[in-house]
Design a protein that fits this description.
Blueprint (H helix, E strand, L loop, with lengths): L27 E6 L4 E6 L3 H4 L5 E5 L1 E3 L3 E6 L5 E9 L5 E7 L8 E5 L5 E10 L4 E6 L5 H8 L17 H4 L7 E4 L11 H9 L3 E7 L22 E5 L1 H12 L4 E4 L1 H9 L9 E5 L14 E5 L6 H10 L1 H13 L10 E4 L1
Helix pairs in contact: 7-8
C-alpha cells in the first residue's frame, strides 16, 4: 500500500484532546489483538492485567526542551516566532522561523525571554531545505541554558494553536524524562504515573530505557504522493548494552518486548536491522512501512496519530492494515481522544 491517500481519515475536531486528563493513567486504552483480530476497551491503569510477568516495557527517556521561541526582527521590530531543532559543534542552531517578509542573511532576531524582555540575539547565517534556518546565538551560554530562559513548551499546533499554559511544562513531559533533546514529547509515555510503573514492576514486568530525540519531521504530514517517494528525516537514538541485555533476557524466557510509543519502536528496529537486536548509538533514517519485517518488538503501546503521517504508516505496518483501519474507525465512533494529550491503544 504505497499511495499516501490510503492513510487519510476523517476526524471530528472535537476529538482532538486539548488537555490531558487530571490523572494520566485514566486515559482510555484500546486493546487491539492481531491474533484474534479483536478490539476491546480498557484504561491505561489496566496495563498490569493486560501485560504478563516476564514482559519488558521499553521506554524512551528523552526530555522535551523548551524549544518554542518568540522574538522580533531587530532592524524592523516585526514579530518573529521559531522552533529550535538542534545545534552543532560550532554552537550554530537549526531553527524553523516564521515572520512577515523574508529575513536577509546576516539579519538578527532579538529573542524575548520568559519575563517578556529583550534577550539573546540570533543572527541568520544560512538557509536549508524545508524552511530550516541556521542561526548563531550572540551569547556564550549553552543552547540548553538559553532555551531554559527564553524558550516555551513546544506544543503541537493542534493543541491550542501551540499556546502553552504554565501546567504544560510538566504535563507535556514523561515522568521518566532524563536526557534533554526532543522538540516534541514521546506521547505514549505521557500516560504513566509513578504508581503505575511501581505496580508493573511489582508484577514482574521488566523495564528497559532507550533514547530517541524527537524532531519535527516525525509529525509532519507526508507531502509525497507515495510512501516510496518520501524522504525520511533522521533522528538521534541510543540503545544501550543494558537495554539490549534486558530485552533479550525477557524474550529468551517467553516474555514480550513491549515498545512504549513509535519512538521506542523506531529505536529498537533501527538497532535490529541486522536481524538481531544490538547496541547502537547514532542517527537513524529508518522508515517503517509495508512490507516490513519486525525484528525486535512484539507489542506496541501508542497514541492515535495524524492522518498521512509516518507514525500512522508505522502503526498500520505493525498492526495490520485492515485491523488498524477498523481500530481507528472504532476510536472515532467511540469518541476516543486523539493525538498527543489523547487516549492510547495497545497492539498485541
Amino acid at each position: 500500500m504505497d499511495d499516501i491517500s490510503a492513510y487519510d481519515y476523517q476526524l471530528p475536531g472535537e476529538l482532538i484532546a486539548q488537555h490531558p486528563l487530571p490523572n494520566r493513567s485514566d486515559a482510555r486504552l484500546m486493546l487491539v489483538d492481531r491474533r484474534g483480530q479483536s478490539i476491546e476497551h480498557f484504561h491505561v491503569r489496566d496495563l498490569p492485567r493486560l501485560l504478563d510477568p516476564g514482559d519488558c516495557l521499553v521506554l524512551n527517556n528523552t526530555q522535551v526542551v523548551p524549544a518554542r521561541l518568540v522574538g522580533r526582527r531587530t532592524r524592523t521590530g516585526g514579530h518573529w516566532q521559531g522552533l529550535y531543532l538542534q545545534h552543532d559543534a560550532q554552537g550554530h542552531w537549526q531553527v524553523l522561523g516564521k515572520t512577515r517578509g523574508r529575513l536577509e542573511i546576516g539579519e538578527t532576531i532579538t529573542l524575548m525571554n520568559r519575563a517578556g524582555l529583550d534577550g539573546v540575539v540570533l543572527q541568520l547565517l544560512a538557509r536549508q531545505e524545508g524552511g530550516v534556518q541556521i542561526v548563531a546565538p550572540q551569547s556564550t551560554e549553552s543552547a540548553l541554558s538559553i532555551l531554559a530562559s527564553h524558550g516555551r513548551t513546544p506544543l503541537p499546533h493542534y493543541i491550542r494553536h501551540g499556546e502553552m499554559e504554565a501546567e504544560d511544562e510538566a504535563r507535556y513531559q514523561t515522568i521518566y524524562a532524563s536526557v534533554p533533546g526532543s522538540v516534541a514529547a514521546p506521547t505514549a509515555g505521557l500516560h504513566f504515573t509513578p504508581a503505575l510503573l511501581a505496580q508493573l514492576e511489582q508484577q514482574g514486568i521488566a523495564r528497559a530505557d532507550v533514547t530517541l530525540h524527537v524532531g519535527m519531521g516525525t509529525f509532519r504530514p507526508i507531502q509525497a504522493r507515495t510512501l516510496s517517494e518520501h524522504t525520511m528525516h533522521a533522528e538521534w537514538i541510543s540503545v544501550s548494552d543494558q537495554a539490549v541485555y534486558t530485552i533479550r533476557q525477557a524474550r529468551a524466557h517467553g516474555g514480550r518486548c513491549v515498545a512504549v510509543g513509535t519512538t521506542s519502536m523506531r529505536s529498537l528496529e533501527s538497532a535490529a536491522q541486522s536481524g538481531e537486536l544490538k547496541p547502537f548509538e547514532g542517527e537513524t533514517s529508518l522508515f517503517i512501512r509495508p512490507p516490513y519485517t519486525f525484528h525486535a518488538v512484539d507489542a506496541l503501546l501508542t497514541n492515535f496519530h495524524l492522518p498521512k503521517s509516518t507514525l500512522l504508516v508505522l502503526v498500520r505496518a505493525f498492526g495490520g492494515d485492515e485491523l488498524l483501519r477498523r481500530a481507528y474507525e472504532t476510536a472515532v465512533a467511540e469518541r476516543y481522544r486523539f493525538f498527543s494529550y489523547g487516549d492510547a491503544m495497545l497492539i498485541v
